[in-house]
Design goal:
heterodimer; A: about 475 residues; five-stranded mixed sheet; 12 helices; 17 strands; about 40% helix; B: about 625 residues; mainly alpha; 2 strands; globular
Chain lengths: ~475, ~625
Amino acid sequence: MRQTPLFRKVLIASANPLFGKGLQQIYRQRFEAVEFLLTSSMEETLAQLDRWQPDLVIVDYDDKTIHREEFLSHFITGQHPMQVMLVSLRESGAVVVYDRKTLTPAQADAWLSDFQSNPPSKRSHPMKGNTRHLFIAGGLVIVATALMYFALLGINLLPDQASTQAQAIDRLFNAHFFMIALLFSLITVFIGYSLFAFRSKPGTEDQPGANMKGNNTLEIIWTLIPLATVLIFSFFGARNLAETRVADPQAMEVKVIARQWDWVFEYPAYGIKSNELVLPVNRQVLLKLTSLDVIHSFWVPEFRVKQDALPGENLVKELRITPIKEGNYTVMCAELCGGAHANMNRPVVVVSKQEFDAWVSSKVNAVTADPVERGKRWAELSGCLSCHSVDGTKLVGPTWKGAYGHTVELTDGTTLISDDAYLYTSIVNPASQLVKGYPNSMPGNYADQLSDEQIRDIIAYIKSLK
Amino acid sequence: MRKIFQYGLVRGIFGQILGMALGYGLVTVLQLLSGARLRAEPAWVVGGAFGAIGFLIALGAFTDWFRMAKGENVPEPEEIEEPQGGKRYWGLSYDHKVIGVQYGFLSLFLLVLGGLFGLIFRTELLAPQLQFLSFNLFNTLIGLHGMVLIASILMGIAAISNYIIPLLIGARDMAFPRLNAFSFWVAVPGALILVWSLALGGFETGWTGYPPLSIRGPMGVQMFFLGVWLVGWSSILGALNLIATILRMRTPGMSMFRMPILAWSVLATSIIALTATQLIGLSFQLVLFERLLGMGFFEPSNGGNPILFQHLFWFYSHPAVYIFVLPGLGVISELLPVFVRKPLFGYKWVAMSSLGIALVGFLVWAHHMFAAGMEEYLRVPFMYSTLLVAVPTGVKFFSWTATIWQGNIRLRVPMLFILGSIIIFLLGGITGPMLGTVSTDLHLTDTYYVVGHFHATMFGGYIFPFFAALYYWFPKITGRQMSEKLGQWQFWLLFIGFMVMSLGQMRIGMLGMRRRIADYDPAMGFQIPNIIITLAGFMVAISVLILFINLYRSARFGKVAVGNVWQSRSPEWQIPSPTPQHNYPVPLRVVGEPYDYAGGSEQYVELDGAAPAAHAAD
């Protein structure tokens, strides 16, 4: 394929006519629309330099009739942009290009002395065995990556995994560990290998390295591959975040109130306040965080996730955690809050559902010993009273007034006397014995939300409503 | 007594004390006259501001401008022949080289101060419980450690930029020499006021100064705000000057893509510093006013929003990280070709990656706030933008590696520090994405992992390159070379010490040690790691001590630097060392590529009529 040439007017100076003809032929095969002028003597060349004003002058380096000093001093005084190329046929590959814009007398001096002793083309050292070097270094990168990745997994970098959120996050951590191992190995191995293979030997400190100025293809590759990698990481990062935020509508709500320098936890469903956060295992808890003074941050390392607690009524922040492992943990304030920030810790205890219920009862019993009183409270806190009246009014569900000890007719036509067992089943599995005339709209999950003790308290309350 | 006042610094400090007394007195008198309750805080704030002005007036930074305002003639800075000798370093000078060295002194002074603060609280952390610090003092020290060292870094990059950039681009001086002197000297009272916060009860907020904590704490926080505010002026004006210098003062023939690569980094840094620094000044100023005048910007009980502060603060303080590291990365790119005798791989890509980092750096600030309770829909977009920083940074790493590949590597001390900075900045870089993806950040934010990560970026991106630059350009300043032997000792102590410290911090952070805690629960098993980290910290301190010994001894007894000591193509090495007063005797001419160490072009620049230093050495 013929290309548009960079030079339109080419002057070839050589006493040897074959030099000019041969070059001209090679040039014409590759480029079109080029004017040629062949000169064979010094005078002619200099005259044509001024008159014809060529873009490129090709000088036969082996031609002794061309006086290079004189030629160059003529060349550098001109204004017209021009390049000179010195070509040697005896030493194949010895080609030097000079640009008039940048060639100056001092440089020409340097060039002349340099050129006589050693032709410039031999100066830069060839990249000997580059492929072999690349293969060795590449192999070492793979080995180093593997070693480092397994080391990172092996040295136990993360605390216990005690929540479903932690499980998801740790998967992302592992992906990061791999990238860290890969990138660290890639750069350090190549640099380390270079130090080993390309370090200057004594006496050769001033020798040049390979003349490698850059490579746009490589640069584009190592721009696009990282770009794709970060986009993929971001995408999976977003998915991972979503996984930690999956909301369970049955989540137990706990209000977390931070202040300098302590935590208080409120369980609105039970009306409990506590200085330790007791959580049932395998049930999502929805923390609603707020602060009374400055910014604090809720963090249990084993749960992974963290959320700042801000002062201000309109700045209540939420955090969802599903503990999966029973044990004792610590909530720590992670945002510098002055003074005794370091000691702003409180215990977090994850227990089985039974133990949790027992803890709730003990807390509540500490408030009041009267089961009727407690039952009234559970009914209020659990939303029972929005559907069941206590004064005989008909709401969505049957009234509780006189609900105990009376005959009830169910939708399937059977009748029975309402007793403890009936009331208990109605609470934990309401659809199994609907009262005639009422819709099947009561949630079936009170067994999860209320402990047995609470349910018994509610029954005691219902009994008291005569 | 009169003799001592010939030193501008002494005059300035005297003026600052006077100004402070004046401001304090004025406010107190006004309070007395108005019958208001006497409050010390407004008096100290106004006193601090007056003190800074007093310093600059007594120093003489305003004298020429006052004369201009009166219509008097003042000489052009480049016509002034300043007396040579050591004394000029202690007062007002318009010579960019003197100012560069002054920045260097201030930077090293603050480095020692900030480092000492660090050592004090690291010693406290050797054991659980409080040993010899109070909670208040501990919290103050961690905040001062951060901010004093940030000031030190700003001064350090200004030292490199001021001394080197005009030399690299063949300018006689900076574009605005008077402004240049002002930029430096405004930082001095700023730094003094910053440290003065210790005397006024300290502050408990850390360097971030988050309200509402900073609205409630002791009033030392006001001095902290004021000091940062003043140092910010230094940064903004210095950046303005550098941008003008790089764009307008290049020697003929030096196109943008023929500039030494350091000029690109400094340009990118200066663009960030010029446009972002206002935001930290503003956010601190708002808290200062909120404390002083009860304006409810950030306190929720006054109708403010504390999250707003964090947005304003990080809009500067994230790009600030790139302000700190870009010049260092530029030093790496600048020095590598000299020591591997090979062109910088992909010059244009490296130059553009600096601008790329600067640009992307503006779009990522909210990744500091993933757990802060900002609007939740902001988290994922900021995750994407944050991770994008990896792309231009990666271009730099790959280009450096390719530059080293197939070079003829000379392991001189500056090269050791350059290699150290590449490895450590790499460590800082690759530990970043974990903080960039939101869910992993929720675990790591506000832990020692973050501490380890950003110390790695600061050491790799600033400390190591700064030391490399010191060793490399020291002969230009003093005419003598630094000791290679001490340099190697310093390097290995610093490199190993830092690695242990930083990796240790990252590890205990992941395992659950929070940032900024004065005390920790021994049951978590953190005592041994903390002891190791503290010892490694002392190793770093010893390495810096060796640097000071080296600086002092080499300046007095070092080997005289003759000619082009590193065989560099860069123009500053073609003239004698120490650098003559107005740099180049004649304008430079660019005749080749800057890093063509292995190619055909014999020289990068040429000095007509002046004997090249390389020849003088023969």
